[in-house]
Amino acid sequence: MFLYSYLNSVQEQKGLVARSQGWNSALVLAEGGVEEALAQLNPGAPQPLVIDRTANGWGGPSGGLYGPVSRALSSGTYSVVLTTDTNPVIYATGYVTIPTLSTTLKRVLRVGTTNAPLFSVASGARSGIDLRGNGVSSDSFNSALATLSSNGKYDPTKTSTNGDLASFAGILNVGNANVSGSVLLGPTANDTINANGVVTGGVSKDFNVEFEDVVLPSNSSSWVPASPLAVPLVINGVSYNYVFNLGGAYDYTINNLSSSSIYVASNTTVRLLLTGTAKPSNIEVDGSGTNSGKLTIYMDGPSFTLSGNEVVDGGNAANFSYYGTTNNTQVSFTGNTTFTGTIYAPEADIKLGGGGNTPYDVVGSIIGNTITMNGHFNLHFDENLLKAGPFRVVASSWREL
After folding, report:
1. Roughly how many angstroms between the first and final C-alpha of the chain, as a whole number?
2. Higher pLDDT residue, 184 or 360?
3. What is the per-residue burial (b if ≥16 Cβ within 10 Å, else e) of 11-45?
4. Torsion of CA 176, 177, 183, 186, to 10 degrees
5. In the prediction, which pLDDT does 259 show?
6. What is the layout of strands, in order, in the sheet containing 65-73?
7. What are the angstrom distances between the C-alpha of 77 and each of 25, 68, 104, 264, 338?
8. What is the CA radius of gyration of the chain?
9. In sequence order, which residues have a C-beta less than 8 Å from that of residue 7 and are 6 or more positions away?
10. In this prediction, what percent of the chain has a pLDDT beyond 70?
11. What is the pLDDT of residue 264?
12. pTM here?
């Protein structure tokens, strides 16, 4: 009887352990379903205006749901669906079969979603930020508010304290910079601050953002090559080889752009795909007229170097966007370059050298793999990007049913 009781106890213990392991595995599988659904809702940066929820085998909506999509893994299976709401709700179920108990365990997660801005910090990196220069500072303003800008432009007398710096991993070296904002670190990131460095908002280690890779527009292979002018056009004392001033919206490509300048007039929207290497000397987007000009650059080559100035006359960072694909591994600013706009190149090492002689050095937001600043730079995050800029889909609520 003692031996029977002992063996029975061992068998029950084995069953409890198997059930516990299966119960935990079912949750992991359900979370895998949530991750696949979030990937479906984030096809890449920048997000298209309309996300195709039917892609990747999800199919058309039925009964208010997209899916289900099911996957079989070594530990079990999961099934996941999306609702048809503007901000969809994800329902993911993980299944684990326990042969010794002849039972299947399941756990169900309900995850709500919302839109989050792609640009939420003055400077963000996957693998580290190094502020080596002297006199580096970071603050924020809002080009959409008269109280935090002057006619939409940065005004050093109207600033706010959201000039945050963030790095998911690596070292964020504040150095002697004056950060009017916070330093945000991922779980494996660390920071260094010199004796003269200041961070008004403190340091936190809860930064957890996935910088999605850039995906080219689906029709970019059909964009037409842009032709340089036979005689450069002089505007405000600068000679421009590529001038887009016809009004309306246009898509172009340029291969191996070298020592050329680009001008986009007001009321004109241009998407420009660059391949090979790109070394523009100047880029200007005119902010005058009824509507400001807009320029979006997709860099699909290895390196981009801006040696002159980039200016958005209207002061709105949303009017100039730079997206570096996985092929883009280097972005450099040389000389006294000023910049108003956004840079999103999560695979690129971004280097800014020199710095300008005005307080308008970098207005907008910069995201890269690593960011290094040599020289005098003032970073001004435009809080208007939180509303007017591109977005990603993130989880807003998470509970088990």
Report:
1. 43
2. 184
3. eeeeeeebbeebeebbbebbbbbbebbbebbbbeb
4. -60
5. 84
6. 65-73, 76-83, 89-98, 103-117, 391-400
7. 10, 12, 11, 52, 52
8. 25
9. none
10. 92
11. 95
12. 0.89
